[in-house]
Amino acid sequence: MIPLPRPWVIAAAAAFGAALGSFLNVVISRVPSGESVIRPPSRCPGCGRRLAWWENIPVAGYIALRGRCRTCRAPIGVRHLVVELAAAVAAGAAAWALTGADTAREAMING
Ligand SMILES: [Zn+2]
Hints:
By secondary structure, the chain is mostly helical.
């Protein structure tokens, strides 16, 4: 096992969770209407412009755009941010719980 500092592990887990949340948003947006979650690449539902790579960065992209398309100013549902943040917090919390201090971990293992 690679001994990484615990905050790094938690931060990495939260980032992974945010990415998972971002994909969940694609699933939420497309699956009900029978669209593919693979293609086409993300577009603004207002003007159809293909999103730049940085606009797809979970949480940070939404904040950078202030919740609106930068071309047509159509609002981006706050659901995108909420799902990404919730998944990030859930994954971060799981990492936090699973990488607890030795005494807590031993207490769980030893009952
Ligand atoms: Zn747009």
